[in-house]
Amino acid sequence: MTAATGGAAPPPGSRLLRSSVLVAAGTATSRVTGLLRTVVLAGVLGTTVLADAYNLANTTPNIVYDLLLGGVLSATLVPVFVDRLEHDDERGVSAVMTMGTLALVVLTALAVLAAPVIYDLYAVQVPDELAADQRAVAIPLLRLFLPQVLFYGLTALAIALLNARRRFAAAAFAPVVNNLVVIVVLLAVPVLADGQPTADQVVDDSALLWLLGAGTTLGIVAMAAVLWPALRRSGSHVRWNPDWRDPAVSKVLRMSGWTFGYVIGNQLALFVLLVLMNGTDEGAVSAYTYAWLFFQLPYGLFAVSISTTFTPELASAASAGDLPAFRARFEQGLRLILFVLLPSAVGLALLARPVVSVLLEREAFGAASVSTTADVLVLLALALPFFATYLFAIRGFTAFKDTRTPFLLNVGYNVTVVVGALVLVGPFELRGVIGALAAGYVLAASAALVVLSRRVGGLDAAKTVPAVARQVGAAAAMAVVVVAVAAVVGDDRGVGAVARLVVAGLAGLATYGGVLAATGSDEMRWVLARVRRRGAGPDPAVMP
Length: 544
Prior knowledge:
Layout: H1 13-45, H2 49-57, H3 59-69, H4 72-86, H5 90-113, H6 115-122, H7 128-145, H8 148-164, H9 169-193, H10 199-204, H11 206-225, H12 227-233, H13 247-278, H14 284-320, H15 323-350, H16 352-360, H17 367-382, H18 384-399, H19 404-455, H20 461-488, H21 494-518, H22 522-533
Helix pairs in contact: 1-9, 1-14, 2-7, 3-8, 4-8, 4-13, 4-14, 5-8, 5-13, 6-7, 7-11, 8-11, 8-12, 9-11, 13-19, 14-15, 14-17, 14-18, 15-17, 15-18, 15-20, 16-17, 16-21, 17-19, 18-19, 20-21
């Protein structure tokens, strides 16, 4: 069978790399347009009652988006789809898509009916003097936003099926469509309102309410819509099949139970950490939030793209019971992830202050805020390779349709982090909480690799350890160069910070790449071979 019908042999290594680069490009474009959307939103709505109501009302569908498209549930669906496609079971795939759609329709309808109750849950801490005004506009907006739940869910289903068929382009760029639609809608709002809109205007003017509310939801509809033509081009033949007893549906339900437990555990742990942070210094939670965005950027740009394109290959090997192929693909993916994240971690850790200063320092975000945020970013950056390793190992388990082991590993991780934070918050305050979080990723990654290695009959340390050792050595050399250059170029603020970032960063990356090239890194050779080929000639060999 061909890839179009779902039962392809694993594609060559260069195709995986090409797909990873494509996903990274889509993610980067999505993040840039998302930033522009935030800038436009702030410019149009400001920090008014309407802005608070809009953001509050948009919270519920966004949470569903994070749950469905944050990687956990998608990783659960992909192995099931890969397995069904390789057995020519289009009926089973259709059953999962149909039952998922029906469940989303019911959930969305219930959410729309419960809009006032949902708002009241979110608004517990809203002062009485603001509650009435905010409620008057938030509930109508919430009713217009909640249909997003259906389309977020359809997007998750479509992306999982596309990934199972090794089709990544549409899924990577679909969020860009959402951002662009919402930007256009937001720019039209002040035209209709004849200036900056107020909450009273939106309540009294149904056209303005529908433009702001339905227009924002239209962005999510468009994001889902652009995926369905891609599904048809991929060779998918989804039919209406409401068979809730189909084995594929049963498998998804069994796996999803542990998956939702995984997500709930993370949310509870995060709640405790945020409470502890909030009890330390003023602005501690904000410092963590900003630092986390920087921490997530290299992971989202590089590791997610690699993990996304390798997940169907892992699932295919696991479904076939081909443990050697699984081990080879997992080790290849892990080495590529560390190849790009080790220098990212070094750069963020050593250049945290100029990074934060250049991008955030303004009148309301002074030197003290820069210092606190940078300190948090340093601790998080040191854990970046372990964070990515842990999540990639979790995908390894879900490739075997095993969501119980990730749940148990995650319980251990969350308990470790919470206990560590409770112990360290006293003497070290915010830095103690973040230190516990970072240490938790180190322990979680180590435990996940040990358990996965036992599951697959042992990972090939003879290849992986020397490869990672070369990467660590190159990262160490990079660190020395970055520190040396940063000591003589620029400073941590203003134009000097930009100079320090550019010069020290480029010098460090050149050192990292040079050391790897000199020591015969397979990852470096593979990437260079792909770059030099530029789409012409035969594919370079699969990375050994």
